[in-house]
Amino acid sequence: MSKPLTDQEKRKQISVRGLAGVENVADLKTNFNRHLHFTLVKDRNVATKRDYYFALAHTVRDHLVGRWIRTQQHYYEKDPKRVYYLSLEFYMGRTLQNTMVNLALENACDEATYQLGLDMEELQDMEEDAGLGNGGLGRLAACFLDSMATLGLAAYGYGIRYEFGIFNQKVVNGWQVEEADDWLRYGNPWEKARPEYMRPVHFYGRVEHNPDGVKWVDTQVILALPYDTPVPGYRNNIVNTMRLWSAKAPCEFHLKDFNVGGYIQAVLDKNLAENISRVLYPNDNFFEGKELRLKQEYFVVAATLQDIIRRFKASKFGSTEVVRMDLTTLPDKVAIQLNDTHPALAIPELMRILIDDEKLTWDTAWDITVRTCAYTNHTVLPEALERWPVDLFQNLLPRHLEIIYEVNRRHLERISALYPGDHDRLRRMSLVEEGGQKKINMAHLCIVGSHAVNGVAQIHSDIIKDTVFKDFYDVDPQKFQNKTNGITPRRWLVMCNPGLAEVIAERIGEDYIRDLSQLKSLLKFVDDDAFIRDIANVKQENKLKFAVHLEEQFKVKINPNSMFDVQVKRIHEYKRQLLNCLHIITLYNRIKKEPNKAWTPRTIMIGGKAAPGYHTAKMIIKLITAIGEVVNNDSVVGDRLKVIFLENYRVTLAEKVIPAADLSEQISTAGTEASGTGNMKFMLNGALTIGTMDGANVEMAEEAGEENLFIFGMRVKDVEALDKKGYDALEYYNRIPELKQAVDQISGGFFSPGEPDQFKDISLSHTVTVFADYEDYIQCQEKVSALYKNTKEWTKMVIHNIAGCGKFSSDRTIGQYAREIWGMEPIHDDDCYGNSLRNHHFIFIFFVCVCGCVCVCVFRLKF
Ligand SMILES: *Cc1c(COP(=O)(O)O)cnc(C)c1O
């Protein structure tokens, strides 16, 4: 509940939540009422909470419109280099509060809604998440959009407007049940359809080779209808665009085919064509070679490239008489970033356009393509790498297959010239995998077709150079780079944890929100008792608030004085939720054995979605809930150990639980988690990390000091050595009594008395090295429990972590992409377009200089 703020509280909140001036508030109220009346066509007698949410959303949206138009106009006038971020996922979450934060409207809206007798937080809770992503990869794309706008880059996010995003997860009797995410049911106030920019996308057909060139003919056409969503930068008046495509059948779809059943059937069949943008594939780090997915990947790429080339040709630069309209300058004006291999078809599609439509030679087209495209790798897990069967390709995209074959022919020619007679190397490096079903290796296509290839954390970038892509590194070392992931401090601190943002701002001002490296100056306060107390108090408030939320939403009571030990992320074997389960069972057994010892109370929360077809992941959810049933109802244990499965983990739930967490579980097998970004969100929100030397955890330890994290377990080299030696789960099982006891309880039905064999299969998992890290993990958890008893020492360690967080802002990440891959300069705040749009004024003084020429002197004034 938001209560009226005292004047002092208001003044305190002004810096991070924006000013609530009287005029501002009055205008907001007027516009809110106007939208309720004219947009929603309701009065206050019949308006629902959702109507009020929509009225507020429209009121806030109005503040974006002028800035959005002016930013796009400005890009047209200045014609800077554009960057296109192509992604099959944009995990945006909610938009209302983010817009208010970036436009500094939050306090004023809070006051306005309060004066109208409404609770703004309740209205915000009516907004559906835009869940157009699975996990880290999709959320990264969303954080990047925020940073690109904040850094003033002329950037566009391009993706698919899925009618159904990631499913909603229900847990029924401990089992995951999926529900369709009908997020557009009540309409989406943040998007604007642009039917005038609809574009055709071709599928199937055949290829004709004529003397005057190649033609792809007899294709089936689906239309791509763009929907634009504004992406505001942080308080800089810049508003970029995320353009998502929706599939539309053309009016004449099937209408000429009298054999398919005539007019009625033809109209009904339009639904089939529109299935392309129906639903997000719910796999995280897993490749499922379905035709509809390949259609989605081509659909977004084909529509987007038409847009890119149209905008390039329509630009002042591209269309001036002086500079002849010439696609060879495309790489100077356009950068295309591929978020994993999912949009890899951009490479053959750009080649097709340049050769077949623009009539350029292969060599010219290839030079343009490689200099324009760059590829980000997100995983080394073999089951996640895209390898599309050639048969599927041949049928759906015959011209693209031809182009890929020719790319491969030239690529292998080069390799065999470098390594004569090394046939095994040619086989390893081919874009076409032979043997059984022929497949196209999309990662190989991306590496060959890009000028830059990057991993997403230092350790991951090293691994791809040394292992999966070593052959490619050997021939093109200059292509390989690292870009450690980051998160936007706007959503993941200012928005979700205003209390902490304010405590920091009181000490170091609020510039750190744009320049997170400034957090290091908090080290000055690490021994300041008042600061330590403030940090601890904010955490306690967040824990209480989350406890209330859990009780209201799910009727579960938790002890807010216990340690909140949280693992939230997709359920996956490599992320080792099972290792967490073994710790829970061990704690339980220890409490039962010595019930009178002074155990550090813990509330262990685990949340995450399992891909619907991933049986083991679903069993892990069932196991967690089954353990909870036993542990939570044991009166000997009481409130010293509770196990909660957090249902339907998504961006909005992350924003609620992460600020309340004391301990962040980042326990993947070393070498498997490319980066992780959840780890960074917890660190920024004042949780301590228990983790392996994997992904970005390594750099977090570097930045905060290894002594300020709880690092345990095998390093990558140990895992490799173990893999070589052969992994024998039984060796650990027989040697470690507490491990044996826990495993026996799982497989013996202790947690599933009604069905003793239920967990037989998962208990002795040989696929991941869970047992090998068990002992070290348990010992490390003992250190965690011991330190937690000392609030002051714990909080000092938290401060070291917050102070070491600067590197993990996505602003830093995007700055590096811009300079090191895109060839763009992020604009300094002082001369950003945004400020010039608003409060910079130019004074021109013309004069005749001594040499007789007319000179002009320009002054810029800021007011
Ligand atoms: C940040 C985030 C992730 C990624 O978490 P990891 O722990 O890095 O896998 C997944 N889902 C949501 C909703 C997120 O906000």
If you had to describe this structure to a student in words, what would you say it looks like?
- There is one protein chain.
- The chain is an alpha/beta fold.
- The chain is 46% helix and 16% strand.
- Among the domains are: 79-94 and 129-482, 3-Layer(aba) Sandwich (Rossmann fold); 559-790, Rossmann fold, CATH 3.40.50.
- The chain contains 35 helices and 27 strands.
- α4 (96-102) packs across α20, α12 (346-357) crosses α15 (398-418) and α23 (577-593) packs across α30 (737-748).
- The longest helix is centred in the first third of the chain and has 30 residues, at 49-78.
- The structure holds pyridoxal-5'-phosphate (PLP).
- The site of pyridoxal-5'-phosphate (PLP) has 11 residues, from α7, α25 and α26.
- Pyridoxal-5'-phosphate (PLP) binds next to α7, α25 and α26.
- Keywords: Acetylation, Allosteric enzyme, Carbohydrate metabolism, Glycogen metabolism, Glycosyltransferase, Membrane, Phosphoprotein, Pyridoxal phosphate, Transferase, Transmembrane, Transmembrane helix.
- Allosteric enzyme that catalyzes the rate-limiting step in glycogen catabolism, the phosphorolytic cleavage of glycogen to produce glucose-1-phosphate, and plays a central role in maintaining cellular and organismal glucose homeostasis.
- InterPro entries: Glycg_phsphrylas, Glyco_trans_35, Pyridoxal_P_attach_site.
